[in-house]
């Protein structure tokens, strides 16, 4: 369950362009601050995604993630 949540949350939050995405991701809708250290990262995936974890940044997320998170957090 943790891995599914991690993979989908990264894909959802990533600003990395998604070529085959149903969601337009070619423009960064929530860019990192201009002084974010990751903009100078050697990894293009880090710099363009706005996330330190570059795994799954170019994937589409499963919309069921939001329902899963809702059910898990409402159980607390």
Strands, helices and their partners?
Layout: H1 2-13, H2 44-49, H3 64-74
Notes on the protein architecture:
This protein is mostly helical and 76 residues long. The chain has one domain. It is 38% helix and 0% strand. The chain is built from three helices and no strands. The protein is elongated. The mean pLDDT is 83.
User: Main beta sheet, described?
Assistant: none
* Series of H and E elements: HHH
Sheet/helix structural class = mainly alpha
**Helix fraction bin:** 25-40%
From the N-terminal CA to the C-terminal CA, the straight-line distance is 16 Å
Mean pLDDT equals: 83
**Percent in strands:** under 5%
Number of helices: 3
Overall number of structural domains: 1
What Rg is obtained from the alpha carbons, in whole angstroms? 13 Å
Envelope shape:
elongated
Extended strand count = 0
Q: Which stretches are poorly predicted, pLDDT < 50 over at least 5 residues?
A: none
């Amino acid at each position: 369950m943790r891995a599914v949540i991690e993979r989908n949350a990264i894909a959802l939050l990533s600003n990395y362009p998604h070529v085959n995405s149903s969601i337009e991701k070619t423009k960064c809708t929530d860019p990192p601050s201009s002084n974010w250290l990751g903009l100078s990262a050697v990894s293009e995936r880090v710099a363009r995604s706005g996330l330190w974890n570059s795994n799954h940044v170019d994937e589409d997320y499963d919309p069921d993630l939001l329902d899963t998170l809702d059910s898990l957090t409402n159980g607390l």
